[in-house]
Amino acid sequence: MRLTHTLLTAALAAAFASPLQAADAVTDAIQVAYAPYRAALSRTNGKSVPEARQAVLQAQSAWQDLVQRLGGQPVVAPYDRDAAFRATLAQVSKVYEQAAAEVGDGQLPAAHATLEAVREQLADLRRRNQVVVFSDHMNAFHAEMEHLLADGPKALAEPQGLPRLVARVGALDHLAGRLRQEAPSALKSQPEFDALLQALEGSMGQLKTAALAMDAAALRDAMGKVKPAYSKLFIRFG
Fold first, then answer.
1. Which residue in 76, 85, 96, 163 could disulfide with 60, CB within 3.0 to 4.6 Å?
2. 3-state class percentages of the chain: helix first, strand second, coil last, to nearest 5
3. Using one digit for the tens of pLDDT, what is the confidence trace for 35-83?
């Protein structure tokens, strides 16, 4: 059995070679399949049904290929003690099936919402098995960003809402700093990554300046610039 595990690990490492190596070949393979997923998530947030359909089908195909390669083989470390490992793979496959059907019906917002479950399922899979990749830091930033964007306009409309909003900006600024700190060297060496991260940091700098000045108008403007900068980084490297 040990030989089988070794051979499977070597095969996966060769088949899914990536500049963003994690601690094990299975995680690396999942991250490779995650790249077309990010494109699908972006396209279903747009208006072109044909582009969204193509992106979702490509992501679904990449995931099916991964599941097929892993199917029938012993589950290797660190996932070999996770009784729900294969169930998670199957659940992600079902999410893709639903999203593909929704895109086929022209329901892009519904497909986008459905695809969010892939991010959640894979994040939970890693969490259960004590695996951390750069995507986890991107997800943490995304979650706090969405809270800020949802709470921000309401806070600005409340008499005492500005201090609460400033606190949220502080939390998001901390998570932005983590993105640079936790980026693997393979990412840091890429000029495109650095440029996109600097753009996000620039938008956060504007947001932080507005928050420190307690300037409601500047905060409202700066909040609108964070998500586009994040999205460009996420699609390419998230």
1. 96
2. 80, 0, 20
3. 999 999 999 999 999 999 999 999 999 999 999 998 877 888 899 999 9
Show Cβ contacts of residue 23 under 8 Å, excluding neighbours closer than 6 positions.
78, 131
Domains of the chain, first to last: 2-128 (1.20.120), 134-237 (1.20.120.10)
The pLDDT assigned to 66 comes to: 95
Rounded to whole angstroms, how far apart are CA atoms 156 and 173?
A: 19
Per-residue pLDDT of 169-223, as tens digits, reads 999 999 999 999 999 998 999 999 999 999 999 999 999 999 999 999 999 999 9
C-alpha angle 171-173-177 in degrees, rounded to nearest 5: 120
Amino acid found at 18: S
What torsion do the CA atoms of 86, 5, 130, 179 make, to the nearest 10 degrees?
Answer: -100
197's CB contacts (< 8 A; 6+ apart) are: 179, 180, 183, 233
User: pLDDT averaged over the chain?
Assistant: 89
Helix axes 216-237, 134-156, angle to 10 degrees: 160
